[in-house]
Amino acid sequence: MVEEQLRARGIQSPAVLAVMGTVPRHYFVDPALPDDAYSDRPLPIGFEQTISQPYMVALMTELLNLQGTEQVLEVGTGSGYQTAVLAELTGSIVSLERIPELAMQAKERLARLGYRNVEVITGDGVQGYLPQAPYDRILVTAGATIVPPALYTQLKEGGVLVIPVGDRQQQTLLAVERHSKGWTQREICGCVFVPLIGEAPHP
Hints:
By secondary structure, this protein is α/β, with parallel strands linked by helices. It is 24% helix and 30% strand.
């Protein structure tokens, strides 16, 4: 997986490549799909949600440029795979999941694997998580129609927000950086994620 799907497609960070080679992805997929655990495609995890393909997990992680001490907000825990990858590379993570059953499963799974720097919370990702804001990095693993305003306000100056933005059929992965005088935004690539759903104002 690391050599053919990640390194061959341009993932360069030694730290990201190393973590992608050690986090056991098969623990995070449906037990009925063991042969597909390391395939280069998203897989269903129930409740009309998916675990992202390994390349997208690696790319989004690399874009965060983690140095090992950051506080990260993840929107969309899912099965917890992306969460585990982040947990290996940063200081602490708050991970939001709107589906209680998925949140509970991910929390138990991450605890069994020994991750102690992760807090999984059932909540509306569109609103972010104000009690522990601001964050050094924010990663959204669902497609938004716009960048939710709450996530802008909960990102520290100098921070990075990675999020797919678009409609249900096609999105663009964005890397947004906050500066003292505003924001810069880069379009990375096309992608398709499950939709970001929340109760906060979000057209």
